[in-house]
Q: What sequence folds into this?
């Protein structure tokens, strides 16, 4: 099974400052079609998860451009260029190469 | 507007069964794979099961294989999860989620969830 490891697990950020979350997979998530089968979700307080980034680096519809995703086969990063209060919540990475596995989640809070 | 509405959760004793449902609207249900994902109290997300558009491809997490059965009724735009031999570890909020394609790929829409509590 593919294991997803996120860091940090808690991330206090001052509004307007950047933030970065790392996700490492135990196996390469690079599919033979050239796409990286890694996605990012945000679960805001009291809400269901919502898709942020798909296939490693593509922003989902309606996601602000302050969010960006990058990474290689096993190491991925979600970056927020300037954190806003509405970005509070738990961020999950998820691999979709072999069924689905989520990371533990990173809780972003405002300082 | 695309919508997923789960139902069927509740309090159940260990060893008993429960059937969850997910009613969908706002999109052509039979074109998309569907999934169940759960979240234990205060915990992270755990994928449970997936079913392709025509039920030709079905998968389960190791933790539920042999106890849970996913099914879909394309005529009635509904997804189901039959859960048997429930244990306290199955206590969670169960979400249904829509895929972006007919085969399992990734999830682009989630319902609000239905809560299952397994307790004596």
A:
């Amino acid at each position: 099974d593919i294991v997803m490891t996120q860091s940090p697990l808690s991330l206090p950020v001052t509004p307007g400052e950047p933030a970065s979350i790392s996700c490492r997979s135990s196996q390469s998530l690079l599919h033979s079609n050239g796409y990286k089968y890694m996605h990012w979700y945000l679960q805001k307080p009291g809400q269901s998860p919502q898709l942020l980034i798909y296939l490693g680096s593509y922003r989902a519809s309606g996601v602000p451009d302050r969010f960006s995703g990058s990474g290689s086969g096993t190491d991925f990063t979600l970056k927020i260029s300037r954190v806003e209060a509405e970005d509070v919540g738990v961020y999950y990475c998820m691999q979709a190469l072999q069924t689905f596995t989520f990371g533990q989640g990173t809780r972003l809070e405002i300082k | 507007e695309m919508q997923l509405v789960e139902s069927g959760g509740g309090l159940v004793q260990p060893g008993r069964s429960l059937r969850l449902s997910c009613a969908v609207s706002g999109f052509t249900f039979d074109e998309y794979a569907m999934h169940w994902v759960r979240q234990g109290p205060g915990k992270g997300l755990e994928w449970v099961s997936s079913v392709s558009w025509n039920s030709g491809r079905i998968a389960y997490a190791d933790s539920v294989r042999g106890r849970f059965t996913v099914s879909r009724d394309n005529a009635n735009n509904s997804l189901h999860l039959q859960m048997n031999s429930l244990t306290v570890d199955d206590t969670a909020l169960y979400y249904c989620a829509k895929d972006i394609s007919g085969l399992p790929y990734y999830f682009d829409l989630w319902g609000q969830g239905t809560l299952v509590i397994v307790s004596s």
User: Anything to note?
Assistant: The interface with chain B takes residues 1, 37, 39, 41, 43, 48-51, 54, 60, 90, 92, 94, 96, 99-105 of chain A (CB under 8 Å). The radius of gyration of chain A is 13 Å. Chain A is about 0% helix and 50% strand. The mean pLDDT of chain A is 97.
